[in-house]
Amino acid sequence: MAEFSEKMQKAIDQLTEEFAAIRAGRANPHVLDKIKVEYYGTMTNIQGVANVSVPDARTLMIAPWEPSMVKEIEKAIMNSDLGINPNNDGKNVILHFPELTEDRRKELVKDIKKKGEASKVAIRNIRRDANEAVKKQCKAGEISEDQQKDEEDKIQKTTDKFTAEIDKMIEVKTKELMTV
Question: The pTM is what?
Answer without folding.
Answer: 0.70
